[in-house]
Amino acid sequence: MRALVLTEGDVFKPPGAGDFNLPPLFGSGDWAFTKPMLLVVVSVAIVATYFLLSSRKLAIVPGKGQFFAESIYDFSRNNITREQIGSKDFKPYIPLVLSLFTFILVNNIFGVIPLLQFPTMSHFGFPLALSLLVVYPVYHFVGFKRHGFVGYLKHQTIPPGAPGFILPLLVPIEFLQKFIMNPLTLAIRVFAAMFAGHLILLVFTLGGEFLLVEASGGLKPVSLIAFLFSIAMTLLEAFIQVLQAYIFAILSASYIGAALSSDH
After folding, report:
1. 162: in domain
2. Which residues contact residue 24 at a Cβ distance below 8 angstroms, ignoring those fewer than 6 apart?
3. Looking at residues 238-258, what average pLDDT do you find?
4. How many other C-beta atoms are found inside a 10 Å radius of the C-beta of residue 192?
5. Domain count of the chain?
6. Are 82 and 88 in contact (CB under 8 A)?
7. DSSP string covering 25-68
8. Neighbouring residues of 258: CB distance < 8 A, sequence distance ≥ 6
């Protein structure tokens, strides 16, 4: 991106990928502890504490806290896990899907909370770790367990009814998709959305600040437009943050459902 020059000596340098590499809070090198790491720890504490407190004194007529917690649980249970895995097999996977949904949701929402203002999933390592170390092993393990090693490979790479002459082309493509691309694209979706959304917010916010402080009198009112756009984009980003948490959870559940199903 090109720098914006308003007057001699006044240069606006647009934000870029380097702005996501925050300095460590303490430590250095391989032992550096950064803000995204802290936010991950905080998100786990928030999710765990909220559900523990909201379920401590359960009542037939729930209070606001219990009602909201039950609504999140019911949504994860019935609208995600049960819909994608099926009523026969879904129950063991409710905790996993609920944890993925709430964990990613909180970490995404951090991006629009004042002072925090950083979506953890905009660092690719976090969604990649969830995908490769949590979702990927689970859905392949349950698939191998149900269908056997050879049976699961056939289940994943040979669509039912596929003509034999096309299998030499189809099998490598299906293998690449199911065993390599799926975990990568699962991580890339949420990462790309959080990275791009936060970058857009930085552009409008920092650009508005620069225009307000550094621009000549005629250009200062333009900063108001930039700030209004930043507010609108913040609202849009909040919606996308919730949506991406839902997409990650529903795709994870769908992969497990596909691995367990008797059909391809």
Report:
1. yes
2. 32, 33, 34
3. 96
4. 16
5. 1
6. no
7. SB--GGG-B-HHHHHHHHHHHHHHHHHHHHTTT--SS--HHHHH
8. 139, 264
